[in-house]
Design brief:
318 residues; alpha/beta; Rossmann fold; nine-stranded mixed beta sheet; two-stranded antiparallel ribbon; 11 strands; 34% helix
């Protein structure tokens, strides 16, 4: 005799039609960006239980992007956990300060304490969320350490994150492989699988980043093939996009974002678009439509349409 506490043995296509219809019309929780085109390509933001990867060369803006989105989520009232294996906790907090306080990082170091305290009080009053930044030595922490951290935060601070940022994936370690003779393909793929499993386990979206290859670093049109170390990473990620910069974009204070993989929407629409960047304040912002002059980007000017707006399509159905 077999004993099991799981009475679900599969989805019955006919018998479970009603529950399937209810699921179609359930509003899925989305974590919205404060960037218009990012919301367009993700149908209103990324869902929980997903792994979202930014691909860029050294110094292009991987940490800038994650700090900006973490700051945005905090102002939306969310709890955010930022795990860094590259920079010190204070360096990450400095970037988020520049973003939220609307001052350059240089001015932070000469700002009077009373002015700094006043700005922090305004942020404290505007949001109910919390931001925790945790530093680990490079290549020393894996999903097991992150799981223990989440349990410790829940126990000691009653803190449950709504979103997790890990800066960045390639300098994490794997909980299954301990190095040795294993190839970088399997090792980085294992890290990606473990982090995505962590996202599913704690019902959160995880954001991380990866480096381009040497060829991709000088390319103006990065593709999935430019992912460094392991092609197993894009195979595992739910959403992957490239951050691209060059001298011309740098002078204009802009950066190009290109879709590489998208499980939320059709990646052929809005394949690439421009956003503004203020590096001194670690901030991204929407640019005017006239700046979206990218050839073959298949851009759509239509904003994201909410599910309830689509019901008009079936209003005459009988």
């Amino acid at each position: 005799m077999a004993v099991s506490f799981d009475n679900h043995v599969g989805h019955d296509y006919i018998e479970d039609a009603k529950s399937r219809f209810d699921w179609y019309h359930t509003k899925e929780k989305r974590f919205q960006f404060d960037l218009d085109y990012m919301n367009r390509i993700t149908k209103g933001g990324v869902p929980s239980k997903t792994l979202n990867i930014a691909l860029a060369g050294t110094g292009v803006g991987k940490s800038l992007f994650m700090c900006h989105v973490a700051s945005s989520y905090l102002t939306q009232g969310m709890n955010v956990l930022y795990i860094t294996l590259e920079m010190a906790e204070e360096r990450i907090a400095e970037r988020i300060d520049a973003n939220l306080l609307d001052v350059s990082m240089e001015d932070l170091h000469v700002m009077p304490k009373d002015l700094y305290d006043n700005k922090m009080d305004r942020i404290r009053k505007k949001t109910q969320g919390k931001l925790i930044i945790k530093e680990y030595p490079t290549a020393s922490a894996h999903s097991g350490h992150f799981r223990a951290l989440l349990n410790e935060l829940s126990l000691k601070k009653s803190f449950k994150p709504d979103a997790i940022f890990i800066d960045y994936l390639n300098i994490c370690s794997s909980s299954r492989f301990k190095g040795g003779n294993i190839s970088s393909y399997f090792y980085v793929k294992a890290i990606a699988e473990e982090l995505r499993g962590l996202a599913v386990e704690f019902d959160v979206p995880i954001f991380s980043a990866t480096q381009t290859t040497r060829t991709g670093f000088v390319s103006t049109d990065i593709g999935l093939e430019d992912t460094s170390e392991s092609f197993g990473l894009p195979a595992t990620a739910d959403f992957m996009f490239a951050l691209i910069s060059n001298d011309e974009l740098e002078q204009l204070g802009q950066i190009k974002i290109k879709q590489l993989k998208n499980r939320y929407n059709d990646p052929s629409t809005n394949r690439a678009f421009i956003v503004g960047v203020d590096r001194s304040k670690m901030r991204l912002y929407d640019v005017e439509q006239s700046a979206q002059n990218i050839v073959d980007a298949n851009q759509s000017n239509q904003p994201f349409k909410k599910k309830e707006d689509a019901y008009d399509k079936f209003s005459d159905f009988k």
